Amino acid sequence: MNQDIFQTMASLSEEIKGTVITSAEQLEAFRIRFVGSKNIIKGLFGEIKNVPNERKKEFGLVLNALKEEAESKFEQDKDQLESTSDNTQNHGLDLTAPVYYDSIGSRHPVSIVMNRIIRIFERIGFTVAEEREIETDWYNFTAMNTPEDHPARDMQDTFYLKDSTADLLRTHTSSVQARIMTTQKPPIRIIAPGRVYRNETISSRSHCQFHQVEGLYIDKKVSFADMKQTLLYFAREMYGPQTEIRLRPSYFPFTEPSAEMDVYWGLKNEDDYRITKGTGWLEILGCGMVDPNVLSNCGIDPEEYTGFAFGMGIERQAMLQYKVTDIRQFFENDIRFLKQFSGAL
Ligand code: DAH
Predict the structure, then answer these.
(1) pLDDT at position 1, please?
(2) Which of 128, 213, 252, 261 has fewest C-beta within 10 Å?
(3) What is the pTM (predicted TM-score) of this model?
(4) In terms of CATH, what superfamily is 109-341?
(5) What distance in angstroms lies between residue 249's CA and the mean position of ligand 1's atoms?
(6) Per-residue confidence at 180, pLDDT binned at 50, 70, 90?
């Protein structure tokens, strides 16, 4: 009997050492057999009565060592299992799996150009203002010095919303000017990017939806010279440090005087002749001093404040930059077209 019990303990010790635990099930089986409330080692303590007195001490030592061996193996293997399952099994990570490349999207060329323009103006203290695309007639036209029956309304073909004579899809981002002037006090220095809509026949050169960036600067003593300097800065950041600009007199209902700004593009090749209609100059934006009527429509005293505004289309600039010849490509979401802009910010 004595011999048997010592042998049993020795073989249990072997069994503990030899048990390989790589799963939660194996760990649980080990726990039940060696450390649980009805474990096999516990049962052996009762055998002490059968051990002769001179070996009782030895029996106690061996049995306690066996108990400790089982417990420490259990703790160790448990820790090991938890740490490996944390970063592998639970997340299905297979380190031997072949590498595959996830395809990430790219920014839309219109966004790329728009972001560039925004960053240029942000550097001189303009902040971005975004507003609604569904506008009321007042913000889009009336406040901007274009009352009903004003011939200038014909300059832009408007999408009016069904069952409403007051709501429309904004035809220009100039409506943001009125939104901002009626809610903020000067000084105002904002840049307003966004989508606009016009009821135009779709062709390679025009679309019924496109994007503009609007600028507005109102403060005491803002002059035409301030506007010119701001726009020259913009043109040189956008088109290169040597860029020349010219301002041509023009007409917009919301500015007086009004102008259009061209940048000198050059006439180096046949394309340049086509793009600039043989002049070498490219029209980039409309601008002018905010009409005093617009200021007073929006609750700003024109005796105290003056300002300048400008607005530019994005698609044409993007077409020039990326040599895109058909504006419709920007709105077709053809992945083969869009993929070419990956990596650009
Ligand atoms: N809103 C005009 C357009 O869509 C562009 C424009 C011209 C905006 C002159 C302005 C401006 O702010 O001062 O054609």
Answers:
(1) 52
(2) 128
(3) 0.71
(4) Bira Bifunctional Protein; Domain 2 (3.30.930.10)
(5) 13
(6) very high
